[in-house]
From TrEMBL:
Keyword Isomerase: no
InterPro entries, A to Z: MFS, MFS_dom, MFS_trans_sf
Full protein name: MFS permease
PANTHER family: MAJOR FACILITATOR SUPERFAMILY (MFS) PROFILE DOMAIN-CONTAINING PROTEIN (PTHR42910:SF1), TRANSPORTER SCO4007-RELATED (PTHR42910)
Domain Major facilitator superfamily (MFS) profile: 35-411
Keyword tags: Membrane, Transmembrane, Transmembrane helix
Amino acid sequence: MLDRRKLHYMSEEINYYSKKDTFQTGNVSEPGKGLVFAMACACGIAVANIYYNQPMLGVITRSFPGELAPSLIPTATQLGYAIGLLLLVPLGDLIERRRLIVSQFLVLALSLLFAAAASTGWALLSASLCIGFTASVTQQIIPAAASLASDNRRGAIIGSVMSGLLSGMLLSRILAGFIATNYGWRAMFWLGIPLVLAGAAAMALLLPLSHPVTSMNYGSLLRSLLQLWREESRLRRATFIQGLLFAVFSAFWTILALHLEQPPFHLGADVAGLFGILGMVGVLAAPIAGRLADRRGPGQVVSTGAFAALLAWLILAGWNSLAGLVFGVMLLDFGMQSAMVANQQVIYGLKPQARNRVNSLFMVGMFIGGSLGSGGAMLAWKIADWKGVAVSAIAVALTAFLVPLLLQRNHS
């Protein structure tokens, strides 16, 4: 039985969000396949800009001999993306979403223009920071899709949009490598401009208007992030589990090229790049995981994804062959992406009027997990090579698998 203080707290929480922070989508029908496809494409186009520089880094570095800045471009892009997650994504709860999304796309196109025309490494570094910052529009589109979906189809729609995001991550590296090799790195940034403008046009024409109603200013909006984090235990749990899974995912991709150079493989960076094609498993897994989360509940899908990641690292640790790597990475990608879609279904169902802020907290936490996974993997590699990385990753994946089971047992 609830005591009076608990009831008072709950009533104040309801009053706070109903009066100060409501969000309405108007009389918008369930999004059709055309709109979902357009949002998936827009997500892929936006997120691709974060990864163009990775396969082009060697070519870019040779264009600016003796400069330190080009080697920092991937870091600057990721840093810009993280800042965008924290400072721009919450604006989706304050500003009409279609206008915000289109505006970010336009500034992203301008950032690409500056990158293509950069005359020094430091100029390109600054443009890369802006590219990452504005490419966070991806995380504006996903909450918008969740807001348009009904409760019983939210997982499927999120999964479909996520498949576009994952496709952009995959195809961007392949496209950028081909363009840079044949036409130079500037050509890729020039090509990115019409792609981004096409994304802006699609969202301007197809995305329904949203109607945020709030008396909060921007400072209050950012401060409310802390309140959301304190209040929502399910958000903290989903973020923690996804952060662990993204850590073991990032650990693999951070060390893969180094591992392939060692016996018994003796393979180069070109083969490491081809492993990205195996990311198609994640593209296919995302919509399937979304539908399963709708039917069976997200908890079961998260547990399955965590188990798949654990099994993947057990295979990677014990099957030291190219076939083992291929099978392991496919299972790892399947597990990480499946759990991510299911966890997103959980968080987007918490506070519809605060979906962008919830998404901001979730993605920042996941990003921190990935950064710690990459750094920890490098440390483990220096200490004990591949075995050290594998043992560390198994421990983290096991934690991600056991946490929801233990919480479920305590709850029951």
